[in-house]
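Thread: Modeling a multi-component assembly for a lab meeting

Hi all, long-time lurker, first post. My supervisor asked me to bring a structural picture of a complex we are working on to next week's group meeting, and I have zero experience with this. I have the sequence lines for every component (1230 residues in total). Could someone generate the structure of the whole assembly? Inputs are pasted exactly as I received them:
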Amino acid sequence: MKIPLTLNGVRREILAEPGERLDLVLRREGILSVRDGCNAAGTCGACAVLLDGRTVNACLLVMGQVEGRDVVTVEHFNRRRTLTAVQSALIDAGVVQCGYCTPAMVLAVEELLRRSPQPTRAETTDALSGIFCRCTGYEQFFQAVDLAAKRLTDPGYVGPPVAPSFKEDLRVVGKPCRKVDGPKLARGERAFVEDMVEPGACVLKMLRSPHAHAYVRKIDTSKAEKVPGVVFILTHENCPDVYYNQAGQGFPEPSPYDRKLVSEKVRHVGDRVAAIVAESAEAAEEAARRIKVEYEVLPPVLTIDDAAAPGAPLVHNSRLEYVVGAPDDLDDDNRKADPRDGRIIYQFPIHADPRRNVAAGVHGGIGDVEAGLREADVVLEREYESAQVQCTPVETHVVYTRMDGDRLVIHASTQVPWHLRRIAARVCGTDENNIRVIKERVGGGFGAKQDIVLEEVAAYLTWKTGRAIFQKFTREEEFIASRTRHVMRIKVKLGAKRDGTLTAVFMDLKANTGPYGSHCLTVPMNACSKSLPLLLCPNMGFKVTTYYSNIPPTGAYQGYGAPKGSYALQLAVAELAKELKMDHLALVEKNRVRDGAMLEILKCLGEGREGKAERVSSCGIEPALKKGAALVEWGKRVESGDPDWKVGKGLAIIQQGSGLPGLDSANAEVRLLSDGTFLLLSGGTDLGTGLDTVSVKFAAETLGVDMEKISIISADTDITPFDVGAYASSGTYFSGGAARNAALAMKERLLDVAASMTGEAKDALRLEYPAKVVGRSKTLTFKEVAHFAETGVGPGGLAAFGHFTTDKASFPYGAHFCEVGVNVRTGEVKIRKYFALQDCGTPVNPELALGQIYGGVLKTIGHSLYEQLILDEKGRCRNPDFLDYKVPMIQDLPEVFRAELVFTDDPWGPFGAKSVSEISCNGAAPAVASAIHDAVGVWMRTWPFTPEKILKALGKI
Amino acid sequence: MFKEFLRPKTVAEAVLLRAKRRSSVYLAGGTEVNALGWGGDADVAISLSALPLGGLKRSKAGLSVGAGTTLQALIDSKATPPLLAASARHFANRSIRNVATIGGNVGSNKSCSNLIPALLALDASVVLAGARGKKTVPLSVFVAKRDPKALLLSFEIPAVASKRRWAARKYSRTVNDVSILSVAVTFDGDAAKVLKPRVAVGGVAKSVVRLAALEKRLDGKPLPPRDGIEALARPLIKPIDDLRGSAAFKRHAAAAMVAWALHEAASPSGSGR
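Re: Modeling a multi-component assembly
Sure thing. I ran the full set together rather than chain by chain. Output:
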């Protein structure tokens, strides 16, 4: 029926059923800014519209309810490619990261400022209270709203800088500026995978296992195949016998090839049983209902103890194969395999023993830990456990695949376009030249989109059927079938002298990788390699054992194991301080890493290759500790004024890496256009972090032009050169480094051509801002050079390639401090103050760097206090939604929340830059836990630190 | 998905449709009924949008709150008793408050309702329309035995109740969460002599309950210290274990919140959070 309403100021009649969801109808009408992150649970707010001027969730309204009413979406404000005061303010304040929730935020701020032109912090908090943003940590929204309010009355208002500037000698690097993809995202334009789907595309529905551990004894799809509109059904019976892993790592991967597209054995609730391609969602649903599956249900293995128990059911009783380094007894061992479990292929040994559920293992150390412990006056041994948490990007995993002639095109929301191409080629059984991966804007990645969790199925089925296929995970699928943090149990042993000098440090780490071995070696290793080198001690060791189990799959998540390693080791140091009756900060000061220190422990912590000791090239921990201690007033006891609320303070020092030296590689190309402007082709994958802006800045700085003179295309495997992808905090350092190198190469080309034009020697020429080649006698504009190059007598259009690899490691550092309140009667925890002081070398985009820090901190405050996948005894997730998996939102911010950039000038990073995002996740758990202890005297050794656990620890229940 | 969307013009028409049409449901704001995970199932939506159910009316006897009043309107109206406004603010999601109605919230009668404890503590009654006409029943009666076919028209809050001391508190995991526990209290008199106390607790039974035995124990006497109140309250609170918390935790925390709320109400500032 026709439903009359006013949409974006125009009276219209929209053809729809009265029971249809408003958000879905709007998208059908081409309103792409209305997005869905929770499947109409009303918990994410990404579908916000203004209904009669008020912010509401479109997903919770049916069309009948909006008849005759006024509906406004962000498209209403998009006039002639300009930005409204609100849109420009959000971009300038740095709160447009992935951009998926930005249209909703724009509307909520518009509504707020109409009601209250100069809103208080509380009013802003309330206005944005229904919208979930996982990227930004919300704090900079207060700045954005203030800026927007001023611009509404004075459109030309610029105001004081939104963030500090760094490096006076540079024009654009280190200065706040408008993120290059900001306007498109703030206008809610076509940008994400779901916006690319063409009419006629099929849907892919995955029939998922209801059992955590079972063999598929029989599967009958005959009735399902008869459902009109069903195109193809893939099961283990017609699945290619190709093994691979989904980890999205560089080849040869340290993660085992332990799965096929669909296996005969299901290994977690939600594992793939059948992939249905159909012309409509309804047909796919109907087909799913008609597939008959007979399972042989096996007992599930859920915990590390379950997996390690003698005689435990085996998750992968598979036939093992090694590309290199097969053990001598492999044939004997393989006699025990069950053919229904399939195979596992190892690219190289990772000390796996699937007959004991061991997915991977590693151990190592320096000095003599036993001797160090004997030498110690105090030995402390503690165990810390982390829960399973999920990355929760607001845009769930999504893919759109289609054929273009005989080539496969994958529109992906991925962190690893080239690894995806490689894996898709493998499962399709074709060559990489036949596949194009286009990385669209990514609506939040956080590591979960390093793993290839749905793309390869859609790719194979499009390749097989020729049909275009769209799949977007439901929120439930995102919880049970994408990626989560590995569950870890870490035993820390510390030895120390009375004066606090550490004599021994040992981490015995057990990890639960779940059903498949995605990142099973490297995530737990990283828990050690990003926490041990924070302490200087001659005797250090670690032992890592990762177990298979039947919990929902784990994988990469921002921080990559480091948040858990950091939690264990930093909290153990806090506990040691208590044992030694020393001030926590003093103990940290005594043992912490320093500028120029040699990190010997890294010899044994190479990631998939031989490690090597590294010298610390720059380290901002000292100023971070000083500044943080002053901000939090370390050592000063605070009373809340309410006897129920006890106040305590805590701290942690943190580090990460900047990509993987010796493993990672990035490339870029710069082309000179006819008028002297540039096109930058970057392999780098911007997943909302601002990497495209970093790359443009590096090129603009190097070439002496304004950023507006450089356009960027990135992460399209057909157009841009190879890049390993966005993981391991490599973006700025590697992909940015490649853009800089490409610009340096272009500089050489410009000078060569200018030399031939002017007759001057090349070394007498230099580039000068803006866009000039200056010699002794002559000055040429880039336009003149470009023109000459492209004429019939010129050397041809100019293009230059840049490659970045390095053997240098630059570690970002930092210190986090917090002040918490703990209610001794209810166990509630409130974060009163949080200060994150971080050294990322030169902050290339200072406002975005701050946003990365706020976002990382708030996420991990969430992990520390609220978040946890809860499984029942059969391995079923009981909270696969935001109703009961609680993520922090704007009202959960610390009362005082401040991120600060501590400048160091790294000698190896491009323009002195190091990474900033992942490290931000490493401080919250130990800082908050130590503050809780300071407040009420109990140690929280398992996260999340729920009120219930606190009351138990206090002996109240 | 609803197959039919009906918009009756009168209460009588709405009630008739609800009685006649199998698989029908009243639809107000829709934040419950349209949401994923709504436990119900209905083909026919009976929209209440054309009925005059919005707004607050003050009279000598008290306040009448139309069932179609949105939670945001409750907060924005100066006529709303402060306890009820505070409880509406416990819905920490403006996008929801802009459409969700008091009638929908009370009508679904969930134990985690933020409003029911406040309304119970305010001695509210509810005006219902059913097949046999209109009737006014104490909210406690409706809460104890909900009639799913009844149409909620308004809530009547006696003027005297709005003048009592009050406090409200919720416990939730994050701020924007359903209330795992919620408490609302009112009383006359002061700490030296508590009169007509009302103690309503959500999240500890199938629906919101009043702790009648505690109220009786407090009535006419000086307010006991918090530990004493907690000890009195704990045996009266019988929650269940679920994924949101163990029974032991909920009992302990709810008792602590009750004691806090009574003392908060008695304090000179006399208002809760």
